[in-house]
Amino acid sequence: MARVRRLELAEALALGPSWRHACHALLYAPDPGLLFGRIPLRYAVLMQMRFDGRLGFPGGFVNTRDGSLEDGLNRELDEELGEAAAAFRVERADYRSSHAGPGQQVVAHFYAKRLTLEQLTAVEIGAPRAKDHGLEVLGLVRVPLYTLRDGVGGLPAFLENSFIGAAREQLLEALQDLGLLASGSVAGLKISAPH
User: Tell me: the pLDDT tens digits for 126-140?
Assistant: First the structure.
């Protein structure tokens, strides 16, 4: 992500009216499950397949004149995830970072919201009935937070997919900062976050 700069939230909100704001959220929940009865899942983390074939997080452009960033993000989540998104609300306390890209006057705000596994599963089940399903969103996917014995399967293979904008870096930074990976799981992964 060359030439992307990290901004403090207050700095991002003080940008002029020609700037657009996009808000996205990583939704995650503790998951006690085991893959093949032996590989701990630890957490379920949701991403989505977008209309352009890239992976990203639920959310989108918001209009700060119509309310807070979080108000706009929660409207986007309702459109993209459906009714189950009403069971929770992304708040300012869930805010993680803001980044401005080169050339375009767009600031990307990123949030991480911890849910219960029941809430997250309800989102997955209800998403195909959401307003934007099949249009902006082609489906949800869980991020594999493990590495198989071959050293490739799981998270390393997942990271080879095509991601939109800063989504890959946001994912890696959040996994590390929130402690969602087992210790040692980040070894060898490119975790460099944009600053």
Answer: 999 999 999 999 999
Instruction: Give the integer Cα–Cα distance in Å for 159 and 171.
Output: 10
How far, in Å, are 15, 21, 61, 104 from residue 136 at the CA level? 28, 18, 12, 21
Whose CA is closest to 57, among 158, 164, 130?
164
DSSP secondary structure, 87-98, as one string = G----GGGEEEE
Contacts with 174 (C-beta within 8 Å, 6 or more apart), sequence order: 26, 96, 110, 112, 180
In whole angstroms, what is the distance from residue 46 CA to residue 84 CA? 14
Structure tokens that stand for 165 in this block: 């904008």
Tell me the whole-structure pTM to 2 decimals: 0.90
- Confidence band of 22 (pLDDT split at 50, 70, 90): very high
d(CA 31, CA 43): 5
Distance CA 184, CA 85 (A): 33
* Continuous H helices in 57-166: 69-81, 117-126, 155-158
CA distance 96 to 108: 11
